[in-house]
Write the structure tokens for this entry.
Amino acid sequence: MNPQFKKGILELCVLSVVSRKDYYGYELVEEISKVIEISEGTLYPILRRLTEEKCFETYLQESNEGPSRKYYKITKLGKEFCREQSKQWNEFNQQVGQLIDKDRR
Amino acid sequence: MNKNEFILALRSALQKNGVKDIDDIASDYEEHFQQAKIQGKNEDEVSRKLGTPEVIAKAYETDSMVLQMKDTSQPFKFTFAFKVLGRLIVLAPFNFLILLIPGSIILAIVVIGWALTMVTGASALAIVTTGLQANLINLSAWVGVSIFSTTLALFGLTAIFILGMMLITKSIVVFAINYLRWNLKFVLQK
């Protein structure tokens, strides 16, 4: 996929994934880079920004395998933002789809 | 790059860019390396996948600048606003092309507005000086009063224009920053 498109939806991807369950950084990076090829380091600025914008809360939790992990949990505000963003994305996607597929039909 | 080299490079890049919470940010990446190690990943491989520390630091810096911009308790500083604007344009150069046509129209309007303000101010000054000179060769009281009131009106008009143009310029800059910030989400380089 074109990197310019990828960046735009990265924030929405992060919001959507975390809205399903709480994630720690590394786990989230793995989850997203399984589907989209990205520079993994650019996800942490997004996580920090979304936390500062009160879309996420963070908490530390011990793990059996070693040091404690910082988990990200979506807030009510984050859920609303996510819903709104995905609505916009779907509309945009549909509109572009209409234009792209016109010639083929 | 191994873990330590990566963290060190990130820290120095963050410091150079004046980002706060460096320890906090660095600890996110330290945790990333730790968790990757548990999964049996090689440090060089992990840092390669993370990307360039300098590019990552730029992302944090731009975020903190935008945050500072939006903080309404701080006085609005034009120089800082233009710095943010410049940063956003550099990060998203294709924005510049899109903004070029509407941007130059808006810029033209702003320039004309400021020019008009200056012309009003200048004509007020001109009337004062000619009025003073004319007074030396003795003018009727009536002409004197009308010159005085016209000058006063022109100065008032100038003051109103300056305030208006300040407001207009400020809102355009803020709008441009918000627009670019929104756009930036689509273009932040890999």
About this structure: Residues 186-190 of chain B have pLDDT under 50 and may be disordered. Helices of chain B lie at 3-16, 22-38, 43-50, 53-70, 78-91, 93-136, 141-187. The interface with chain A takes residues 25, 28-29, 31-32, 34-36, 38-39, 49-53, 55-56, 59-60, 63, 67, 185-190 of chain B (CB under 8 Å). Chain B has two domains: 1-73, 75-190.
